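Good morning,

Attaching, inline, the backbone tokens for the sequence recovery test we're adding to the shared suite. The designed sequence is right after.
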């Protein structure tokens, strides 16, 4: 009986630690029914025992780096999971594949794109790069992330999210809209 109690305590402690240090995912789509693609990805994440704590509004932005390609619809999720970073990355890649994403050239249009933005403030340069290498320069990440965590700071630079948003070019701020 003591073992069950200890196991229960460890699980509760793990969940509490995860609440203190959440994980943020960015999800985007610029092909097909963009909103439906994102909602399907969210449903699959939930089925995989990934708990969504908070979801930003939808944000529409120009395709990057080529604004002539279809516009993106993006959200940011705050999640809790017991998965390790590589395990979560593999799960995200499988969801992308299952929802129709095909291997194509970098930055090409896609049905779904799921990125791990910040994994409990872990810094990693190995098999997985954490936090996401370019998140601090992207309006479609920073604005939805600000919506759900106004106190977030970049794990490496320690810059506050407001400072990162204010450092974006004006065109990046004016070209995105909450939908």
């Amino acid at each position: 009986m003591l073992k069950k109690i200890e196991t229960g305590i460890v699980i509760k402690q793990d969940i509490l630690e995860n609440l203190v240090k959440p994980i943020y995912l960015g999800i985007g789509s610029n092909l097909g029914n963009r909103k439906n693609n994102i909602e399907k990805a969210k449903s699959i994440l939930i089925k995989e025992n990934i708990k969504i704590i908070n979801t930003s509004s939808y944000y529409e932005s120009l395709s990057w780096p080529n604004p002539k390609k279809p516009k993106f619809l993006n959200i940011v999720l705050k999640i809790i999971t017991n998965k390790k970073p590589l395990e979560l990355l593999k799960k995200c890649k499988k969801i992308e594949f299952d929802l129709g994403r095909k291997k194509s050239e970098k930055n090409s249009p896609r049905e779904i794109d799921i990125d791990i933005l910040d994994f409990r403030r872990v810094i990693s340069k190995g098999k997985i790069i954490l936090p996401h290498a370019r998140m601090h320069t992207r309006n479609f990440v920073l604005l939805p992330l600000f919506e759900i965590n106004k106190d977030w700071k970049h794990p490496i630079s320690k810059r506050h999210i407001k400072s990162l948003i204010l450092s974006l070019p004006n065109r990046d701020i004016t070209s995105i809209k909450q939908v």
